[in-house]
Amino acid sequence: MQDKNTMTTARSKFLSLVLRHSPQTIGLKLDSAGWARTDELLACLARSGRRTSLEELQAVVADNNKQRFAFSEDGSRIRANQGHSIPIELELAPQQPPVELYHGTATRFLDAIFREGLTRQSRHHVHLSASTETAAAVGRRHGKLALLRVDAARMAADGHVFYCSDNGVWLTDAVPVSYLAKLAV
Q1: Can you give the residue ranges of every domain in the chain?
Q2: What is the 3-state secondary structure (H, E, C) of 21-69?
Q3: Span 57-67, pLDDT tens digits
């Protein structure tokens, strides 16, 4: 039998798939802002053979170290905070970013990044971190770490728009090369 941490991780990964990329995998419908009704999500999970109780779902949301998911204030709806590859509108208000933001990646991507800048790829936004520690943790997942500094203050002054998701991830459409610098790691 799987231990509790393994089960929670598996549920979290599957929830990421469903709420960020493929709700149709279990027959779930998201609204235009990415919200699903909590009761509908639980019913769809059960029908797909992934029965989850409300308490287990609440634990996945509460225990996720990256706070990828959020419930509405009344708990009747749930969504992923960012990272979607499906068309949704998170309804975030533009915000003034910190002076510097950071992006962790793998060294094998640096040539392309310094040719094209940071692009959103299949997601809605480029994801940036307010701390080098968080950016490094993200970058290490992709291979040998490369840490980039983003001159967010200059980008904002030049008209680029930033948003901050509910879990503190900074989002923007793209980061042109002229705003990037490689940090020593």
Answers
A1: 4-80, 101-183
A2: HCHHHHCCCCCCCCCEEHHHHHHHHHHCCCCCCHHHHHHHHHHCCCCCE
A3: 999 999 877 78
